[in-house]
Design goal:
Number of domains of chain B: 1
Low-confidence stretches of chain B: 1-47, 55-65
Number of strands of chain A: 11
CATH topology of chain B: Maltoporin, Chain A
Family (chain B): Belongs to the TonB-dependent receptor family.
Number of helices of chain A: 5
Number of helices of chain B: 6
Strand order of the largest sheet of chain A: 5-6-7-8-10-9
Number of strands of chain B: 34
Strand content of chain B: over 45%
Shape of chain B: globular
Largest sheet of chain B: 22 strands, antiparallel, barrel
Structural class of chain A: alpha+beta
Low-confidence stretches of chain A: 7-21
Number of domains of chain A: 1
Strand content of chain A: 25-35%
Shape of chain A: globular
Membrane topology (chain B): Multi-pass membrane protein
GO biological process, one term (chain B): siderophore transmembrane transport
Radius of gyration of chain B: 25 Å
Structural class of chain B: mainly beta
Keywords (chain B): Cell outer membrane, Membrane, Receptor, Signal, TonB box, Transmembrane, Transmembrane beta strand, Transport
Radius of gyration of chain A: 23 Å
Mean pLDDT of chain A: 86
InterPro entries (chain B): Beta-barrel_TonB (IPR000531), Beta-barrel_TonB_sf (IPR036942), Plug_dom (IPR012910), Plug_dom_sf (IPR037066), TonB-dep_rcpt-like (IPR039426)
Distance between the termini of chain A: 13 Å
Mean pLDDT of chain B: 90
Oligomer: heterodimer
């Protein structure tokens, strides 16, 4: 009987659960940096992340970053990555840094191409990846002067307001940044970057700067009638098997 | 008072009106151009006479005009007062009315005549009709001759006779080396010089030496010069620390707030061997010159010259015959040129290597034939074959993208071949009237090969568009000039000139093809910081010019003289620029007013007009106190695009030079005030920035005798911070491959106070 009770309780919880009660949710994100020198193409980060509204933490930030110096047609959101555009896209699957910024009222997170934050030359100081250290290093790649030592890293730094679905203020947009030190994003020893003069003291190495960011909630699937039917069937089956076990004693 | 026409200087046989003359302060030749002007080193009858040892007849009269009234010739003496402390030969031209200087690198400034600059002019060095071989014209024509080697400068600023022009609409500048010297019969001559100079601003320094050996028929002259300089400094801080903070990154070489980045030069070496042989009225000259520059910064360009090697062979022949005279010139020049960025622009090298190689072969043949005693018929032809490759190697260690993995071909197998013929008649109708009429035609064939970018994708659309078109083209241009001079008496002359002149577009106006900002920013001939795309559909520029000159003076020109020159030029198909409307140039490109933009060359129409005034007066001439002379020169030019109503770019506003000169024995001293008014007529399409007016004081003194020469000067003596209207945009530091990092709206400042000294010894 205990088993049945546990089962019923679990089932009830499952049946009643919906997002309104969850603290972790999945969101889609598209961040755009305007690239005056590679028009009509811009740099886009298109990805997703999980956000815990209780702890205000971002996890599993991952997505793709476009290389505006490749291809000739700009990204079109309605047709998706490489739907209309012919740019190269880098996969950024390693969320290695994230922090909460109380003054801006939100959480930063950066996802990298490599499982390492080593992006920029550290000869000018800095931590080797932050936008500020990138500006100080003139965007020069990590491992300079040995081209072979360049790990070819890339990242996108995004910002999630306390309420992820609110529109970003200009001050928040100013802090968005990307870097691309991979083959298609490098000019000589300089990585292609996107930063704002207001946020970091300089625009990016190809004059790119953050333009906008759109966050939308991942659509939560609503269970269909057959799902409930299966659930009831399963419960009936479990109840039946439990009853069989009791009877067999 | 005999009047002598310009004429063939015959050997031991003279036409009644074509006798060789030694020009003294009192010879009046009723001529417009001298016979041998087609050989710049020998454009002056007296020079040829001296070189060929022809008996000289001294005649009282005024000095001959070897250029029209509207032009000017600078004598060797005047050149020498400046050349020792000057890095750039173009600076020697600043005393020519109507001539201004567009700033560039330390030795590569570009002259402009009446608002028309660079390739709109015909610029010759020792008769060689050269062209730059660089998408920024860094190896400009006058950068190939060191100032200390210059012996004469001629500028045809108003109407250029067809024998001196062709394929140019703005005038002609002829810079020539010192003439060869020969020993007296039966003797030998050994001469030489060694000199050094120092300029305090930028610690510029250099040395030069020459050695010569000559008999009465042979002359050998070897000369060599070296110079280098650090960045120069403006009079005061011109960089706002907060504006420049993003640029002054830790990764870049530090510059002070008054330091003009990328303005240094090092490893600049000129070597030349000049040989001459003369016999019986024939003069043969062979010049071999080599020039190399290790590094030359360009504060108004996005790149710097990291290497330039130029080798030229130049053969000239002048023959004097009973029937007239003959001039033949043949030359060949090869240039290897490299660009990249200074460490003030990029911490990492190579940042963006760019290479070009060019070969120019040219020559001319001119015959001058006196007839009917009062007329001179000149007929001849010239040619110039120019080949250019301009490519940018990929930077290794990268994958396909902006700068990998193929050569970027900016101009591949570029070609511009010109062949021209001309005929000209100078006529002395009466004692008072002289005319010159000339016609010429030039055929210009230009072509270029197919192109590619560093990689497909980013560059492919533009490359496909370019490659789908036919690059070959042919222009047949026709020019004429008509000039009349009226000299009613020995104190005044008036000259009216009319001309039609043509210029076909250059390789760098036709063929640069990429609209990708980084690539287009590298194609810029004018130092405005903008990006330029070529246009294969350009038509030749055709200029119609009217020029009127007047010259008043006392009989012997020993007390005073004043000259006025007014001109009006309409240029059909004037090659101006329009904002690029391609998607790749961005939607904001057409409306931006406060930043660097992408432009494409396009034929429009233009009108230029202005006035040159120059005068001198001897204030006192006392044997003990020396001679005091006041000199003045005022210039004004307006340039408008009549199609768009815009102003033309880089037009000098009202300006003047006022000089007090003192001469006593071997001393020549000058106090010069240069005044320039504000530049408010600016080119909107280029987002040209205005400049304020200013005044500068320059002090110079020079002492020379048979064995030595000492020059001292204090330039910008009051240490005034100023911005030349023709200085261009300041781009001397910061990552320059992109349009948005270097702050826009700052002009290149002029040099702050500089004390210069030069010492030269002769033997």
């Amino acid at each position: 009987m205990n088993t049945i009770n546990k089962l019923l309780a679990t089932t009830a919880f499952l049946a009643l659960s919906n997002s309104a009660f969850a603290t972790v949710a999945t969101y889609n994100i598209t961040t755009t940096w305007f690239e005056p020198d590679t028009q009509p193409k811009n740099t886009y980060f298109v990805g997703s992340f999980n956000y815990d509204s209780t702890t205000k933490t971002i996890t599993s930030l991952a997505g793709k970053l476009s290389e505006a110096m490749t291809g000739s047609v700009n990204y079109n959101a309605s047709t998706g990555i490489n739907g209309a555009d012919n740019m190269t896209w880098l996969s950024l699957n390693y969320q290695l840094v994230s922090w909460y910024d109380a003054s801006l009222g939100g959480t930063f997170a950066a996802t990298f191409k490599n499982n390492s934050t080593n992006t920029f030359w550290t000869g000018a100081g800095g931590n080797g990846w932050s936008p500020a250290s990138g500006v100080a290093a003139g965007g020069i790649y990590y491992g300079f002067p040995s081209a072979g030592a360049n790990p070819g890293n890339a990242y996108a730094l995004i910002f999630v307001p306390d309420n992820p679905l609110t529109v970003l203020t200009q001050a928040q947009i100013n802090k968005l940044a990307y870097a691309d030190c991979s083959a298609g994003g490098i000019m000589g020893a300089s990585c292609m970057t996107g930063t704002s003069a207001s946020g970091y003291g300089s625009v990016g190495t190809m004059s790119g700067y953050p333009l906008s960011q759109v966050i939308s909630m991942t659509t939560v699937p609503v269970p269909e009638p057959e799902t409930y039917a299966m659930l009831l069937l399963g419960l009936a089956f479990m109840g039946l098997s439990s009853r069989q076990k009791t009877l067999s004693r | 008072m005999p009047r002598l026409s310009s004429g063939a200087v015959t050997h031991m046989k003279t036409h009644s009106k074509y006798q060789p003359v030694k020009l003294s302060a009192s010879v009046q030749l009723s001529v417009i151009f001298l016979t041998l002007a087609s050989s710049p080193s020998y454009a002056d009858t007296a020079e040829v006479s001296a070189a060929l040892d022809i008996p000289v007849v001294e005649v009282e009269g005024v000095r001959a005009h070897s250029v029209p009234l509207s032009g000017k010739e600078i004598s060797e003496r005047d050149i020498k007062t400046r050349s020792s402390t000057t890095l750039d030969t173009t600076r020697l031209l600043e005393d020519i009315p109507g001539l201004t200087v567009n700033e560039a690198g330390a030795i590569s400034a570009l002259p402009a005549i009446h608002g028309l600059a660079d390739e709109r002019l015909k610029i010759q060095v020792d008769g060689m009709d050269l062209s730059a071989a660089c998408p920024n014209h860094m190896n400009s024509i006058l950068s190939y001759i060191n100032p200390v080697k210059v012996g004469s400068v001629k500028a045809f600023t108003g109407i250029t006779p067809v024998s001196e022009g062709g394929d140019s609409i703005g005038g002609t500048i002829q810079v020539s080396s010192l003439s060869p010297v020969f020993a007296e019969v039966g003797k030998q001559l050994i001469n030489g010089s060694v000199g050094t100079f120092y300029r305090s601003n930028g610690y510029a320094h250099g040395w030069n030496a020459s050695a010569g050996f000559a008999t009465d028929q042979l002359s050998f002259q070897y000369s060599e010069s070296h110079l280098s300089s650090s960045n120069y400094r403006a009079a005061k801080n011109f960089k706002d620390a907060s504006t420049w903070a993003p640029v002054l990154r830790n990764g870049l070489e530090k510059t002070d707030l008054d330091e003009v980045g990328s303005s240094s030069i090092s490893g600049s070496v000129n070597k030349s061997l000049d040989m001459a042989f003369k016999r019986d009225g024939h003069l043969f000259q062979l010049g071999i010159s080599q020039q190399s520059v290790g590094f030359e910064g360009f504060p108004n360009q996005r790149m710097d010259m990291t290497n330039n090697e130029n080798t030229s062979f130049n053969f000239r022949y002048t023959g004097l015959f009973d029937w007239g005279d003959l001039n033949l010139k043949l030359f060949r020049q090869r240039v290897k040129h490299a660009m990249d960025m200074s460490y003030e622009r990029s911490y990492a090298m190579p940042a963006m290597p760019m290479l070009s190689e060019s070969q120019t072969e040219g020559g001319s043949l001119t015959a001058s034939l006196p007839f009917l005693n009062d007329h001179l018929f000149k007929v001849g032809g010239d040619f110039k074959l120019y080949k250019l490759d301009d490519w940018w190697p990929p930077v290794q260690g990268m994958g396909p993208g902006a700068m990998c993995c193929n050569n970027f071909w900016n101009v591949r197998n570029g070609k511009r071949d010109r062949v021209g013929i001309f005929a000209e008649v100078e006529s002395n109708w009466t004692e008072d009237w002289v005319t010159s009429l000339g016609v010429r035609t030039d055929m210009i064939n230009a072509d270029a090969g197919k192109v590619q970018g560093y990689s497909a994708g980013l560059y492919q659309t533009d490359a496909n568009t370019f490659n789908a078109k036919s690059q070959g083209r042919r222009d047949q241009n026709y020019d004429w000039t008509a000039l009349a001079r009226y000299t009613p008496d020995r104190t005044q002359s008036y000259e009216l000139g009319l001309a039609r002149k043509s210029r076909s577009p250059s390789v760098y106006e036709l063929y640069p093809w990429s609209s990708f900002t980084m690539a287009a920013l590298m194609n810029n001939l004018v130092g405005d910081g903008n990006a330029y795309i070529g246009n294969m559909s350009l038509d030749p520029e055709i200029a119609h010019t009217a020029n009127i000159s007047a010259d008043w003076h006392d009989e012997n020109r020993s007390v005073w003289a004043a000259k006025a020159n007014a001109y009006l030029t309409y240029v059909d198909n004037y090659i101006d620029a329009v904002r690029c409307t391609l998607a790749s140039c961005g939607a904001a490109n057409t409306t931006k007013t406060n930043g660097f933009v992408t432009l494409q060359y396009e034929n429009h129409a233009a009108k230029l007009y202005g006035l040159d005034l120059s005068a001198y007066r001897v204030l006192a001439n006392d044997g003990q106190l020396g001679q005091w002379t006041a000199k003045s020169m005022i210039g004004y030019v307006r340039g408008e695009n009549t199609r768009t109503g815009d102003n033309l770019y880089h037009i000098m506003p009202l300006n003047g030079r006022f000089t007090l000169e003192h001469k006593l024995g071997g001393w020549t001293s000058q106090a010069e005030v240069q005044m320039v008014s504000a530049k408010t007529h600016v080119s909107a399409v280029r987002n040209e920035t205005e400049t304020d007016g200013y005044g500068l004081l320059n002090l110079r003194t020079s002492y020379s005798n048979k064995f030595m020469k000492v020059d001292l000067s204090l330039e910008n003596a009051l240490n005034k911070l100023y911005y030349s209207p023709l200085g261009g945009a300041y781009l001397g530091q910061g990552f320059s491959m992109t349009s948005g990092i270097i702050p826009w709206g700052i002009n290149v400042p002029g040099m702050g106070r500089s004390a210069n000294v030069a010492v030269t010894f002769f033997y």
